[in-house]
Amino acid sequence: MTQPPLTLYLAAPRGFCAGVDRAIKIVELALERWGAPVYVRHEIVHNKFVVDALRDRGAVFVEDLDDCPDDRPVIFSAHGVPKSVPAAAAAREMLFVDATCPLVSKVHIEAQRHYENGLQMIMIGHEGHPETVGTMGQLPPGEVLLVETVEDVAHVTVRDPARLAFVTQTTLSVDDTADIVAALQARFPRIVGPHKEDICYATTNRQEAVKAMAPKADAMLVVGAPNSSNSKRLVEVGAKAGCQYAQLVQRATDIDWRALEGIASIGITAGASAPEQLVNEVIDAFRTRYDVTVEQVETAIENVEFKVPRVLRVPA
By CB distance 3.0 to 4.6 Å, which of 88, 99, 218, 234 could disulfide with 26? Predict the structure, then answer.
């Protein structure tokens, strides 16, 4: 029986960003240098496939530093941690390696600088997300106020409207964040923003590729984890950009084939912590059911690379 034709639009860029690549490499190099087990506070990146593969090699994932022994290395995840965490590790004389994405660290430095200049911070982010918790934890309690929506801006209570600055989580929707920033600037005209936008290049690039791809496709799948902020934003961006069906899948086994009946075209992308192996798995699943023609939708070329910490670069 002949298979129905399907045009598969493949977003570029997609998948791993430089910060995720670096974080995974840090765990791999730590296992090579110090042997198993190596402890990791929180999932190194939000992807079950990646975490399970590292666990198989000897990484132990915990949510709290108290769950780590003093005599084994511990790695802090790419999302960043409150200042209290490395301080506690240092007090216990633990060997620790910080895998915080350098672009998240940039936001931490920004927040610290504004605090030292006497400004109270407003953070645009998602409550409870590890990156938000880590950024807010750079400063004393009450110095960082969280807003998630335009509506939150109207109700936030600040110390001094003339002494404010804002930062953002790096994995937000570019368009939604622009609306919240506009609301902040309207209510607090003297609020100070970042020198360079906090939303990272990879988040922005992946969202732009989805915007270019979505109007062409009958449906769209985002390969990514349900706890991945940037992956969930890609689904939202796709729906807003005109794709009638946009769905998050962790891997090919999660595809809802009934929902895709009758489609002639589909867009595929992946969140910044999803490996290309899972994208290929999804494409192969479509090839078993359709006569697939692949078209790449490229909106940017990425060549960013971040070095791993010095302790993993120098000979043991």
Answer: 99
| Residue 230: partners with Cβ closer than 8 Å, 6 or more residues away | 171, 202, 203, 206, 224, 271, 272, 273
Q: What percent of the chain has pLDDT over 70?
A: 100
Among this protein's residues, is 32 annotated catalytic? no
Could you read off the pLDDT of 64-93 as tens digits, one per residue?
999 999 999 999 999 999 999 999 999 999
**Cα distance between residue 160 and residue 121, in whole Å:** 11
Domain housing 42: 18-101
Spatial strand order of the sheet with 59-62 comes to 59-62, 38-41, 74-76, 96-98
Give me the pLDDT at residue 196, please: 80
Task: Pick the last residue of a domain from 101, 136, 164.
Answer: 101
Phi first, then psi, for residue 164 (nearest 5°) are -135, 155
Q: How many residues does the chain have?
A: 316
Would you report the helix, strand and coil content of the chain in percent, each value rounded to 5?
40, 20, 40
Is position 263 within any domain? yes
Decide if 249 is inside a domain. Answer: yes
Domain count of the chain? 3
Q: Which of 32, 116, 127, 131 does the annotation list as catalytic?
A: 131
Q: 88: helix, coil or strand? A: helix
Residue 3: count of CB within 10 angstroms of its CB: 12
CA dist 249 and 193 (Å) reads: 35
pTM of the model: 0.95
At residue 197, the pLDDT reads 83
